[in-house]
Amino acid sequence: MSPRPSSRPLGSTPALPWVWAVAGHASHDNGILPSLKQRSTGTLGTTGLHAQSPHQELFLPLALSSVPRSPVSTFPASRPLNDIDIYSLTVDSKVSSRFSHTVVTSRVVNRADTVQEATFQMELPRKAFITNFSMVMDGVTYPGNIKEKAAAQEQYSAAVAQGKSAGLVKATGRKTEQFQVSVSVAPSAKVTFELVYEELLRRHLGVYELLLKVQPQQPVKHLQMDIHIFEPQGISLLETESTFVTNELVDALTISQNATKAHILFKPTLSQKQKPPKLQDTVLDGSLIVRYDVNRTHSGGSIQNGYFVHYFAPEGLSTMPKNVVFVIDKSGSMSGRKIQQTREALIKILDDLSSKDQFNLIVFSGRAAQWKPALVPASVENVNEARSFASDIQAFGGTNINDAMQMAVQLLDSSNREELLPGGSVSLIILLTDGDPTEGEINPARIQENVREAIGGRYSVFCLGFGFHVSYAFLEKLALDNGGLARRIYEDSDSALQLQDFYQEVANPLLTAVAFEYPSNAVDEVTRENFPLFFKGSEMVVAGKLRDQSPDVLSAKVSGQTNITFQTESSVAQQEEEFQSPKYIFHNFMERLWAYLTIQQLLEQSVSASDAERQALETRALNLSLRYSFVTPLTSMVVTKPEGQEQSQVAEKPAEDGGWGLESQPPRHHRPPFLPAPSSPTQLVDFRHPLHKAGLYLSFIFTE
């Protein structure tokens, strides 16, 4: 994916034409808001961007309840909804060298003459780490304290034993979870909520994406979103898209940019935020998306305060031929819409195969069967025949994953022995299943071991878990053990598009066996340096520390398959000087980026580690989490509240398999904007996994 050709130099400030998109946004069944896309001309082009790009999803606090402290079971229709008034709502997001630091601040006042309960509520990315949450009341700050999970367990268990729990944070989207905390507010009193989190933006199909969702559910006197982006490599593509910037709000959104920096500001006046006449049933509600990419340079990295990061996404490489075996679950649980969407997606994916590729199909239920006895070229004739085969797949029977995977490995082995695999090609096994094994070998650990031994590091496995009845932990380990990755496919109307989107990620392999090599006397504590595959549109990231006696120039040799080597160099002094502007830099961001990436990779490594190795990985990840104040799967944040109110709110991260307990049907809509106080304590459902990199789960335990 490449940006459109430049017709003006970066740094100029042309008029910004507005392009109305066709898409709309549903707002709590309150109506449809038009979608507005803004593009800058020249170097700020746009291409066919995909909706499933990994992105940072930044959501403003959704709602503040306005209900009496006395429990009520329903919300009185006649009661005014603005007793708790949000008079200021701001988000300050700084992105420096792909690493984002976001501060969301909400200030509210109780305008009623009785005590009211104010609820701070927002959604944040699953891959983000919360670093701080605090409330300020009557001049006193009530902070969140990050502790080892075991240290918070006593408070957690005591609250659960008393049946006093509320404020569960649940999955509200495919990449987000909802943070919620409530506090009682005296008449005329004010409260300031502040939430801080950090995340490394990942490149997906050629772009980075930052998403802000605005749902205050009432006019806000001071509403502002302020985004600063600094990319030393230079910004090659910048695009904004919004579902809430109507004609009344066009002037509230401003964008400025030079070669390396961008500033996006949304700051409407109160009159601009009022409901337009034709939308009386709605308030400001929607998304602001910022997509961007950077220039690719030989240095491709940044250095700050003794820490470095290298981003590597070489251009100009030819796509390698693929040998792909699609392993498709057609067991009875796939019947209905799932098998129909699988057929649709598979037909589209087959159309996208390159003429240089080879492929085969395996379908399985209680038994596995292959479409052809061997891999076949992706010729027009073979693809058409495979399409016909795919369109006839019917769902029935049990689930025999082990035999299907063994058959896939044997297909590749046979072609390899007969020297039928093209030189310089990549062999992939793509497994799609919606359930756990029920026939043949059903022990997940034994299946993982069987597949790992059969493959022996020669092929990569990518696992797609359809819905929530499959063990994602099983699929993730199966993939990570074999140089691939796992992805959940959500049961929805766009499941076929999700499958196609995933295939686009792996459709164009450019490099294999990528290794970063640094001078041993120059760096220390380097993150992952070896990558089995590199795909077009993605990016490899390596971070580390500089040694005390580091050279003036940091060099790195990056090698791929035979005869492919890249050399990168960065001037330490020049790189240090670039990161001096406080407007774009936060704290020691490079050190925090290194810590974030190290923790993420330690958690990932632990998935496929032995028990002894896992303990060592956990210990290191825990120490880093505590040192840098990250809420990770190994830590909890205990949120304090004023004396006399419910206490011991504990924030935790869940596993991908965790959730509300009804995660197989994730909610389509957000909760109502104004919530009554619960008439009785709600049961705390605690789904936890000792280690998992994805998902923020916040369970708030209220004790009197």
From TrEMBL:
Keywords: Glycoprotein, Protease inhibitor, Secreted, Serine protease inhibitor, Signal
Domain VIT, first and last residues per copy: 70-199
GO cellular component labels: extracellular region
GO molecular function: serine-type endopeptidase inhibitor activity
Name this protein carries in UniProt: Inter-alpha-trypsin inhibitor heavy chain 4
A Pfam cross-reference name: VIT
InterPro entries per UniProt: ITIH, VIT, VWF_A, vWFA_dom_sf
Domain of life: Eukaryota
Region annotated Disordered, chain positions: 641-679
VWFA domain segment(s): 323-506
Gene responsible for this protein: ITIH4
Naturally occurring in which organism (per UniProt): Prolemur simus
